[in-house]
Amino acid sequence: MTATAVLDLHGVTTKNAFMDRSAEQLRLPHWFGRNWDALYDCLTDLPDPAQGGLRLVVRGWQEYAAAEPGEWETARRVLAAAAAFHDTAALRFDIVLEETTSDPS
C-alpha cells in the first residue's frame, strides 16, 4: 500500500522556511541538517519497503519557485534524485508537484 505525505509550501519564500516546513511536515529525523544533502539523505532513508511506497505531494510550491528560482531548481533536482534512487530499490517513491488552477469547478 502506498502512503501519501503532503508538503504544503504555501507562504514559503526562503530556503530556511522550505527546510523548516520540510522538517515539520515530513517529520524528518532530529539529525536533519536543513540543507539539500541532508534532505536527500532523509528521502533516501525511508522506512522498510515491506510497508509499501510513498507518494509525496508538494503543494503551493509556485510562490517559493518565484521567490527563489535557483533554490527551487535545486529542490526539484533533490526530489528527482531521491525518486530515482528508489526506482532501483524495492520501495516506490513518487513526487507529485500539484498545480494550482484558477478554475473553481
Report what the structure shows:
The chain contains 4 helices and 3 strands, in the order E-H-H-E-H-H-E. It is an alpha/beta fold and 105 residues long. The protein has one domain: 2-Layer Sandwich (Barnase, Chain D). A 3-stranded parallel beta sheet has the order 1-2-3.
Which residues sit in consecutive blocks of at least 5 with pLDDT less than 50? none
- Based on CA inertia axes, which overall geometry fits? globular
Our Rg estimate from Cα atoms comes to 14 Å
Helix/strand structural class: alpha/beta
Features of the shown structure:
3 strands; Barnase, Chain D; alpha/beta; 105 residues; single chain; 16% strand
What would a concise description of this structure say?
This protein is an alpha/beta fold and about 100 residues long.
